[in-house]
What we know:
Elements: H1 2-41, E1 53-60, E2 67-73, E3 79-84, E4 87-89, H2 93-104, E5 110-114, H3 118-123, E6 131-137, E7 143-147, E8 157-161, E9 165-169, H4 172-177, E10 197-203, E11 208-214, E12 217-220, H5 229-240, E13 246-248, H6 253-261, E14 263-271, E15 276-284, E16 287-292, E17 298-301, H7 304-309, H8 333-354
Antiparallel strand pairs: 1-2, 1-6, 2-3, 3-4, 5-9, 6-7, 7-8, 8-9, 10-11, 10-14, 11-12, 13-17, 14-15, 15-16, 16-17
Amino acid sequence: MFKFIKEYKFILSLLVIIGVMSAIAHWDETETKKEELKEASKNKIFSFSFKEVTGIDYINEEEDIKKFSLNLEKGSTPRWRITAQDINEIPDQSLVASFIETLVSLEYKTDLGEVTDEVKLKAYGISDSKVKFKLTVQDKDDISVVLGGSPGVGNGVYLQVNNKNVYICEEFVRQGLTKSFNAFRDRKVIKLDSSKIAGISFLYPNSSFQIEKEASEFKIKGKDTVLDQNLVEDFLFSLNSTLVSSFIDHPETKLLSSMKTSRFLDLFITDDKKREVKLEFSFVEGNVYFKFRGRSTVYVAGADLKNTLTKTEKDFLVKKEKIDLKNLETITPSDKSKVDNDHDHDHDHGHDHSH
């Protein structure tokens, strides 16, 4: 009995020791994680998260479009919208996300503390800064940011937050935070849903033709010829994949006149609800310039786009396989005799086999 009690006490003591050791290990792990988080965030400038940013008002006085705004539209799939002057469009969502992520992870090299002295602010390039922006953060006060000058060539950039604290950040921060309106724009401006397209009209200076969808198949309008559906899809895919190299939001009369005289295609695309997109393509100074009819912005793309857009009905027809007569084997008289003999031999062999 005493031996059993003694063993029981030993086991109990052992369990207590294990429990204490586990608690110490857990505490040590928790403290280590806290220290790691503290170390990782000790030089961070901002405490907001990516999802908390809902708006950005940006000023860059060195650009043609000096002021613009980015605002998060709520919905089942939230998306950013960019506006400036008379322009209102959907920007490249990944570029906006990258900008916000840069801010979330932003760190300083040196914290100069609160600076209100005008002489210092001028020396830091903050009081006469050309680049500044304001962040709207969910359930928090707005945050203002001003990009200043550099402590020395390649030595970083001064940055002031909320008109108070001034920080010195790494030089790459200047490039990451200095933006223009066009820097956020989506360079894929043609967006067509091929599944909803009902017709495509090609109007060239000297020819034209129309493609229409009947019973889920694209055909040449007025003809029963069924087109190669993949070729039509490939054409639409090429349009959607077109990357714009630059934007001209307020084109001069001279450019518009040049585009009118050098237009090589009017493209009309109709969807299943009879809504129509009209595109005008011109070839100017070695590049393709195009615009949506009714809109002022002109887009510039590479010269290769002209080849993509230059089509005829035949380009969409089902390709028939052609027999290459040159590669067919030629049978000489001697070959023919050999073939006949082989045939007779096979016939005789078959006859003998039947007996």
